[in-house]
Write a structure and sequence with these properties.
Helices cover 40% and strands 19% of the residues. By secondary structure, it is an alpha+beta fold. The chain starts with 9 loop residues before the first helix and ends in a 9-residue tail after the last helix. The mean pLDDT is 91.
């Protein structure tokens, strides 16, 4: 069968196990990372509902391309009691996109995502600046 070999510090190996667990959980359904706010390897971006398909791409191609470019792991988080409702921002619902990895990888991914959203939905992040 398939096998993955992980190396690095104990903390890095532990994170890899978590990342792989979440990756496989996505095959079963929505994933939510409890305590993401306290993690030093996590950034969350609110994505407007009307931009989710644009950000994700066909069969996750756009998101996968950004993950590969920046060396990050990204997926939409859905709280167990919040399925389908989203959060309100600017009059429309949003979904949380979790970005995991080193700080530089997360920041690059975050900025690219924000730029894509501004292209699709001008003013989402820049309105009021």
């Amino acid at each position: 069968g398939m096998m993955a070999i992980c190396s690095g510090t104990k903390v890095e190996r532990s994170r890899v196990r978590e990342y792989m667990k979440w990756l496989f959980q996505q095959l079963e359904g929505p994933v939510y990372v409890h305590g993401w706010e306290a993690r030093e390897d996590c950034t969350v971006v609110d994505i407007p509902s009307d931009c989710i398909g644009y950000i994700t791409g066909n069969r996750r191609a756009a998101l996968g391309s950004m993950e590969e470019e920046w060396g990050s792991l990204m997926f939409f988080m859905t709280e167990p009691d919040d399925r389908g409702r989203g959060h309100s921002r600017g009059g429309g619902g949003t979904e949380r996109l979790a970005i995991f990895g080193p700080e530089r990888a997360r920041r690059g991914s975050e900025l690219k995502i924000m730029s894509s959203i501004e292209t699709k939905s001008p003013g989402f992040f820049t309105r009021g600046l």
